Amino acid sequence: MSVDHYENFPVASWLCPPKLRPPIAAIYWFARTGDDIADEGDLPTESRRAELQAYRAELQRVACGEPPATRWAHIFGPLQQAMQQHALPHALLDDLLAAFLCDVANPAYAHREALLGYCRLSANPVGRLLLHLHHVDDAAALAQSDAVCSALQLINFWQDLSVDLPRGRCYLPASDLARHGLQADRLQAGPAAQAMVCELCDWARALMLQGAPLVHRLPGRAGWELRLVVQGGLRILEKIDAMHHQTLTQRPKLRRSDALPLLWRALRMPRPRPSLALPA
């Protein structure tokens, strides 16, 4: 299954354990469909909001054990089965829909913490759902997963500025814009914008590196999957650096030529060193 259309979702590829492919696919298509309701097509804002509310009500319906309605049965049938077989937390799935409702409202983000609040709804639930499927639930792993997922979301934002801004989507924190003397509605390419994007990329990189040790916690194929996800995000940041942070005018992306470097870096990801206890 190719999942590159939904940028926040770590890919469910051949690396994924076969027994987990059905629930991961069910979660993916649930999220993909909700995201498309929020973003795709030419429906007016109120119609999108009403569609998402109906979609959210259907999630509540199947979470309560009722059979899915006909309209989205192809989505909620497999999802209900995954919820029942794997005890998927309803709250995490609902958080994703809350994020899509935020997208419909298209809010401004005053500062970085506000943007991270959005990532807690739009990205972090995906990582937590995958950890749940692998029976990993300790606080350290959850925090590292949140860091990786938020970093992936931020990287996508800074990668897609040339696409999002013309559509009226601005995820740039107002505090960062102000610090560089910029305004969201008058944003133009130039040294100030490049400096701002550079800082934002450094922030995303620090978050990714904070969460990267999680790759050593996941077993087998899942750990290798996550290694490639982490290295893919870091590679995009390198490409943004190489183009001098001019993502207001062009969009960097991974290519086939990046595959071998990504595999090599994934193989060489170091294990964190255990902290040494100081003598009493």
Walk me through the structure:
The structure is a single chain. The chain is an all-alpha fold. It folds into two domains: 15-106, no CATH class; 107-268, Orthogonal Bundle (Farnesyl Diphosphate Synthase). It contains twelve helices and no strands. It is globular and about 55 Å long. It starts with 20 loop residues before the first helix and ends in a 13-residue tail after the last helix. Mean pLDDT is 90; it is low at 1-6, 8-12 and 276-280. It comes from Ideonella azotifigens. This is Squalene synthase HpnC. InterPro entries: HSQ_synthase_HpnC (IPR017827), Isoprenoid_synthase_dom_sf (IPR008949), Squ/phyt_synthse (IPR002060), Trans_IPPS_bact-type (IPR044843).
Number of helices: 12
Categorize the overall geometry: globular
- Can you write the helix and strand succession as a string? HHHHHHHHHHHH
Largest sheet: none
Mean residue pLDDT: 90
> What percent of residues adopt helix (DSSP H or I)?
55-70%
CATH architecture of the largest domain: Orthogonal Bundle
In whole angstroms, how far apart are the ends? 54 Å
Assess the beta-strand content as a share of residues.
under 5%
Give the helix/strand class: mainly alpha
Give the name of the CATH superfamily of the largest domain.
Farnesyl Diphosphate Synthase
Radius of gyration, CA atoms, in whole angstroms = 19 Å
Looking at the structure, the CATH topology of the largest domain is Farnesyl Diphosphate Synthase
Q: Give the class-level CATH name of the largest domain.
A: Mainly Alpha
DSSP strand tally: 0
Q: How many domains make up the coordinates? A: 2
Question: In terms of per-residue confidence, which ranges show pLDDT below 50 for 5 or more consecutive residues?
Answer: 1-6, 8-12, 276-280
